[in-house]
């Protein structure tokens, strides 16, 4: 059994809820479109066990698998809207300002 990358007990509630919602969406869309589990698994190159875990919102399943399933089922834009460019662009007004201590101010001299 593969090692889990993180402790699922410490997973933020909002993240767990979103994964369960994506899983329910994948399951519902697969059934609505009459796509068998085997067919979707073949298109995604995953096992049926992975698909079952994904449909239950298992956080151990990779984000890429969730997004690929949503894309194949044609609901990715509705389920995961694109981020606004301001969130990932390198605009100078969004830079983090360092504290005086992080810049090596007077307070560091007293620490050592």
Architecture overview:
The longest helix has 20 residues, at 13-32. The radius of gyration is 21 Å and the shape is elongated. The chain is mainly α and 112 residues long. It has six helices and no strands. It starts with 12 loop residues before the first helix and ends with a helix. It has a domain at 8-83: 434 Repressor (Amino-terminal Domain), CATH 1.10.260.
Task: Please give a handful of descriptors for the protein shown.
single chain; 112 residues; mainly alpha; 434 Repressor (Amino-terminal Domain); 50% helix; 0% strand; elongated
Brief characterization of the structure:
The protein is an all-alpha fold and 112 residues long. The chain has helices at residues 13-32, 37-44, 48-55, 63-72, 76-79, 106-111.
